[in-house]
């Protein structure tokens, strides 16, 4: 879970943990990319609007990994342009904040076939 807003990060991480998912929290895209555990990740849920590297730049970086993983975006700034850009760039999901926890959990389960 990557989000610069700690309250959002903690709430979504708690929801994911309650569904028995292992979760690593990151306050920024750079924290994720610098983490040696990133090779163990199976999926990323990331905010789009973050200082430094935004969600789209993070997605592009992950797409260059030896083993790319799905990226689901969450954002408070939903526009048709942002939604279309996410789809065209290969995001595995797109949710507006506040996030529909049940929908997010269903999408993660679908992607990871749990």
UniProtKB/TrEMBL annotation:
Residue positions, PTM 4-aspartylphosphate: 47
One of the Pfam families matching this protein, by short name: Response_reg
SMART domains linked to this entry: REC (SM00448)
Keyword terms: Phosphoprotein
InterPro entries the record matches: Bact_response_regulator, CheY-like_superfamily, Sig_transdc_resp-reg_receiver
Response regulatory domain: residues covered: 1-112
Record PANTHER family: CHEMOTAXIS TWO-COMPONENT RESPONSE REGULATOR (PTHR44591:SF25), STRESS RESPONSE REGULATOR PROTEIN 1 (PTHR44591)
Protein name: Response regulator
Organism field: Paraburkholderia ferrariae
Taxonomy of the source species: Bacteria, Pseudomonadati, Pseudomonadota, Betaproteobacteria, Burkholderiales
